[in-house]
Design goal:
- By secondary structure, the chain is an alpha/beta fold.
- It has 14 helices and twelve strands.
- It has helices at about 10-15, 15-25, 40-45, 55-75, 85, 110-120, 135-140, 160-180, 185-195, 195-205, 205-215, 230-245, 285-295, 335-350; strands at about 30, 30-35, 50-55, 80, 95-105, 125-130, 140-145, 220-225, 250-255, 270-275, 300-310, 320-325.
- A five-stranded parallel β-sheet has the order 4-3-5-6-7, sandwiched between helices. A five-stranded parallel β-sheet has the order 9-8-10-11-12, sandwiched between helices. Strands 1-2 form a two-stranded antiparallel ribbon.
- Strand 8, helix 12 and strand 9 (about 250-255) form a beta-alpha-beta unit.
- Helix 2 (about 15-25) runs parallel beside helix 8 (about 160-180), helix 8 runs antiparallel to helix 9 (about 185-195) and helix 12 (about 230-245) packs parallel to helix 14.
- Bound molecules: 5-amino-5-deoxy-1-O-phosphono-D-mannitol.
- One of its GO terms (molecular function) is glutamine-fructose-6-phosphate transaminase (isomerizing) activity.
Length: about 375
Amino acid sequence: EKGGWSSFMAKEISEEPEAVANTILGRVVDGQVVLPELAGLDDVLQDIDRIIVIACGTASYSGLVGKYAIEKWARVPVEVELSHEFRYREPVLTPRTLVVSISQSGETMDTLMAVKYAIANGARTLSICNTQGATIARESDAVVYTHAGPEVAVASTKAFVAQITALYLFGLHLSRVRGTLDDAVAAKQLSELQSIPAKIEQVLTNAPEITQLAKWMSDTRAVLFLGRHVGYPIALEGALKLKELAYIHAEGFAAGELKHGPIALIEPGQPVFVVVPSPRDPNSLHAKVVSNIQEIRARGARILAIAEEGDVAVLPFADEVIRIPLAAPLFEPLLTVIPLQLFAMELATAKGLDVDQPRNLAKSVTVE
Ligand code: M6R
C-alpha cells in the first residue's frame, strides 16, 4: 500500500535510503565485502577476461554507472549493451566472458533471452535481480540480489540505486578475488558506500524546491540533460524518466559530445539539467563541465545545475542550483539521480498525469 504517499513512485523514492542500506546489509564484514552467493565462483572470476553487462532501460543505465567502478577497481574490460541488441549481432563469447544481466523484475523477456543466448554460447552468467526467485536469477550461474523491496510504480527508482549498489559490491568483490585493489582502498570505498543512505536522506529534503521548479516548468516542451563520467548515465536516466512520466521530449548527452552536434539544439530559454562533477574529482572534469555550461548559457540555455554543496563555480552561470552532499566522485550517481527522479515525478503530477501508470508502458516487459 501507498502508506500515506500520493503515489507508489513517491513512496518508493522515499525508500531509497533503505533500499541502498538493505542491499549493503550483511555484505560488509570488517571492512571487506562478503558475497556468499559468489563463493563457488572464485575460479571463474579470476579467469574472466571480459564482462558484458546486458539490461534494458533504467537497468542498463545502472550498468553504465557500474562499468566505471568495475573497470577502475578490478581492471577487467566492461561493455554495456542493451539486451535486445546483444543477441542479434553474434557477439563474441568465450568461457572467459562473464555476462552480467541486470533486471529489477528478473522477467524482462529481452534480457532473459539474452541470458539464454549467453549460456548457449558458452559464456558464464551472473544476474543482479530484485525479485527473489525470478526467471533470470534461476537461469544464471549466480545471482546477487538487490534488496530494494517490491517496486510497484512503472518508473524504476529505488531499484536503480540498489542496482548501482550491488554492482559496486560486486566490483569490490571482483577486485579482491583478482587482487587488484589494496585492502585499505577497498575498505575506504565500502565506508563511502555505507555513508550513502544518510546522504540520500539529505538530498530528499530538497523535494519542495524541486516540486516548485517542476510547477514552473509544467508547459516545457523539451528538456536536455548533460553529464560526464558517471554523471553521463545519470543524464540518460533523467531524460528517460521525464519521457516516460511527463511525456516530454528529453535527451541526455555526454557533456563532451556537445560540440559534436547537440549544441545546435540550444536556443534561448532551452532548459538544460547539468550533472556537475565534484570539483574534487581527480580527473578534473569539473572545470570542463563548467565551461560547457558557459558555452550553452551564452546561447541562451536555462541552466539547472545539480552540484555538490560548496561548489561556487557554478553560481554565476546557473539559473537554479540543486545541491547534493559531498561524496566520493564514483558514488555521486546515487545522489544526483534523486533530484531528476523527483523532477520527472513532479512535472508529471503538475500536468495531471498518473505517475504510477504512465501510458503505453508495463512494469515488466515480458514480450519481445
Ligand atoms: O525489470 P527490468 O529491470 O528488467 O526492467 C527494465 C526496464 O524495462 C525498466 O527499467 C524501464 O526502463 C523502466 N520503466 C524505467 O523507469
